[in-house]
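With this grant's support, the team has encoded backbone shapes as discrete tokens. A representative record is reproduced below.
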Amino acid sequence: MTDQTKPNTAAPAPASASAAPAPSASAGNPQGRRKGLTIVAAACIVGALAWGGWHWMVARNYQTTDNAYVGGNVVQITPQVGGTVISIGADDTDFVKPGQLLVQLDTADALVALSQAESQLAQTVRQTRTLYANNAPLMAQVAAKQADLSRLQAEAARTADDVERRRPLTLTGAVGQEEFHHAQAQAKSAKDAVTAAQAAVRAAQAQLDAAEATTKGSNSADYPTVLAAAAKVREAYLALERTRLISPVGGYVAKRGVQLGQRVAAGSPLMTVVDLHNLWVDANFKESQLADLRIGQKTELEADVYGDKVTYHGTIVGLGAGTGAAFSLLPAQNATGNWIKVVQRVPVRISLDPADLAKHPLRVGLSMEVKTDIRDQSGTMLASTQRQAPVAQTSLYDASMPEAEARIAQIIAGKNLPPLTRLPALSEQAVKAIGAQAEPSAAQSPAADASNAQ
């Protein structure tokens, strides 16, 4: 084998040994890096300007909070008298109207008490009439005594004249001494009879005055004992009426705790009625937000239950008189130990548009998001006028008095009324009156209160 045929065993030189390192793209393009930073800075400036313009044009004109909750009138149904439950007229989630029966208590004891009170009134009326009737015989007795006194006075005057006429005749002997002494005795006897008759007249007049002192200036209908007995009848009739618990407002039943056959005491809670047609929102704004809030400012609200699909419209009707912490059950004692500042919140009452509530009902306690337009600064921060109408009122507890007064008038007039054996039904007029007063009037609406406060 020759040298030309021998394989070449020498290792080739590495290419990397002779190649130079390549320069980086950034180091070779400083203008591109500067352009990128300029774009980022410009974007930040534009974003800041946009945010500033939005804050100046929009955000600064509103105050918002999500610490807001729906409130309403939660009417607690409690009995005014104790008794045993024999009927329950409504359950949880039921809708009730004003005047609708909710709970009926046993009426047996109340009926017995009413019958006793009416019997006592009838007896008192008869005794009083007897007292008035006794005045006539006493007046006749006084007249008879006075007539006797007049007759005896005339007799005494006659006998005295006889004595004076016989006195000069005794000197001439025309009238004997015995006859004269007899005339004197008759005159003395007549005078004593007049004295006795005068005493009898005074005694009879005293009896008449004593009788008239108890009856003068009144009649049998307004005699004190009759009035007291009539008051007992009213009390017993009211106790009978109060065995029937009816709803003073329209709404929905919640928290029913009463059971059939339960013995309940006066004042114990049985159920509640919530009026979902007259709700409001209590928005708890921070203390740093209060400076721009005024009564009468318009608000937009969103409920978590509907989200941003539904917007409610409302009006501020009042700002709270203190923070929530100030009226809490256990207020903070910031002077004891270490202190950490906590931003305080003040409740702001916001009325809701009834039309919005009718379309999208709410519940008490639901969360709300509130946005208040603070551009209108014409209102006041605190109410400056007093309320012109009650917040709520009902004639529920007056419905039974006309019927009680009618029975009392008949008993005083002398009619024999049969005792009641059952609770009288509530009249339709009374139910309508209760319903009419339960409906809020324009003067009672929160919007009207806001206008009055301004």
